[in-house]
Amino acid sequence: MSGHSKWSTIKRAKGATDAKRAAQFTKVSREITIAAKIGGGDPAANPRLRLAIDKGRGLNMPNDNIKRAIERASGLGQTDAYEEITYEGYGPGGVAVLIEAATDNRNRTASEVRSLFTKAGGALASTGAVAWQFHARGVIECSGAMDLVGEAAIEAGAEDVDEDQGVIYVYADPAQMESVRAGLEQRGVAVKNAEAGIVAKSTVDVSADDARKNLKLIDALEDLDDVQRVTANFEVPPEVFAELAG
After folding, report:
1. 233, 96 Cβ separation under 8 angstroms
2. Could you give the CA distance from residue 119 to residue 117 in angstroms, rounded to a whole number?
């Protein structure tokens, strides 16, 4: 699971600028709207909505933004017919890339995603071409001593635990993530963030040059308003990781 923790470290560093944070507000607002539309506007009865709201609050999103996003789903405010679509592709060096999008115009989004892959020297793939290399996982970020968090995670029903750059990642089945999170907090573990996501089953090694090209592609994809999240299955070489994390 170390590949995922390194990705999280990189994304935290890259998401620190005001411009990135503004873009994150837009993406989280869409996630809140979609979650509320699917499961209702009460976060107490809608775990997906609760996670999206927690993510927004973790970004210091104003409460008014959260309220408006929920209202869009219930028809009380501006309506946006977002649909969730997953795109699959190959980046430089044959890296598998999975793109999760929320869009009101699938033709526009597909065209934009395809164009970025082509410019990067990769290619958009057909449905199912690379998805089998990934699986759904609940990812809970914690702080504290690794041995104590690890013990609490096992008792709470987690599947795996990893540590990177001072952050401990607890992995759980998405359906069990809320109970694992609650179990961690009951055992005194400080939970920083929890999110249901997609994780590569295993990572592949690529050259430093291909790693940089893939990171550039991922940056461009994540800059698209319609793209919610991008996941890839390559291991970032130490020298490239140092360039980004440093």
Report:
1. yes
2. 6
Q: 138 pairs with which residues across the strands?
A: 172, 196
In the chain, what are the domain boundaries? Answer: 2-74
pTM score, whole prediction: 0.81
Count of residues in the chain: 246
CA–CA–CA angle 129, 35, 48 (5° rounding):
85
For the stretch 128-144, pLDDT in tens is: 999 999 999 888 989 88
Residue 83 and residue 50 in contact, taking contact as beta carbons nearer than 8 Å: no
CATH, range 2-74: 1.10.10.200
Furthest CA-CA distance within the chain: 51
Return all residues near 30 (Cβ < 8 A) that are at least 6 apart: 69, 80, 82, 102, 228
Q: How many other CB atoms are found less than 10 A from the CB of residue 45?
A: 10
User: What are the strands, taking DSSP E only, across 177-233?
Assistant: 190-200, 204-205, 227-232
- Nearest CA-CA partner of 203 in 109, 133, 153, 141: 133
**What are 14's two structure tokens?**
């890259």
240: amino acid identity, one letter: V
